[in-house]
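Weekly structure sync, notes
Attendees: PL (lead), two postdocs, one rotation student
Agenda item 3: pending single-chain targets
PL asked that the sequence for the first pending target be pasted directly into the notes so everyone works from the same version. It is reproduced below exactly as submitted, 235 residues in total.
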Amino acid sequence: MVTAITIPILPCADLDDSIAFYEALGFNRTYRQQRPNPYAVVELGEIRIHLFGLDDFDPVTSYGSVIVAVSDPDTLYEDFATGLRERFGTLPSSGIPRILRPRKRNGTVRGFSVVDPGGNWLRVSKLGDDEETRETTTGLARVIENAARLGDAKGDDEEAIRLLENGLGRFSDARGIEQARALFCLAELHARVGDEPAALQSLTAASSIELSDKDSESIKAEAEHAREIVGLKSQ
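Predicted structure, written out during the meeting:
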């Protein structure tokens, strides 16, 4: 078989803005030109992305999307998140650009997404993971995965909110950890759409659920992430 490398070429409205964003993620700019057309290359290890500037381009209308399979998506997410906090002062979780944390999404493998300043999606997943290796979930856990797919993979936060709220009502007898996980996810979604009172209410409800020490530890990262997105990281 012929050895090959596939490299995406993604559009952007402002080439320098996109370069700066990728540098915040930890990429190095290895090439840039202004003429005859704005063009740049950014690289992070084996991940190579080419960018081109396009006059009058609207990032909201972008259909650019790249699947990035890596051995450890969680570590890569932490590296990306650290760089974005340094650049923006907070973790951008709504609008363009944004980053969405790692989690299982029903119908997809575990991973996370980044939307760059050009509106292009980087869909990061675990290398070697596939549909057949995923455990089948039911009840509220399944609702959370479906909501994650709607919000994270499709960007439909409002529909994800409705799904979670209905799920919490339907599965009121779900285990405490599942209810807390759903509420933390709901708080994050409310924060994304700018509904701060609802986000705070969801956080309060999640925090009031009594959990075992083991469950509290297993959900700690999700709780901290939700509080950060809502703006309550220190609490």
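Discussion points:
- The mean pLDDT is 89.
- The longest helix spans residues 176-192.
Action: rotation student to compare against the earlier draft before next sync.
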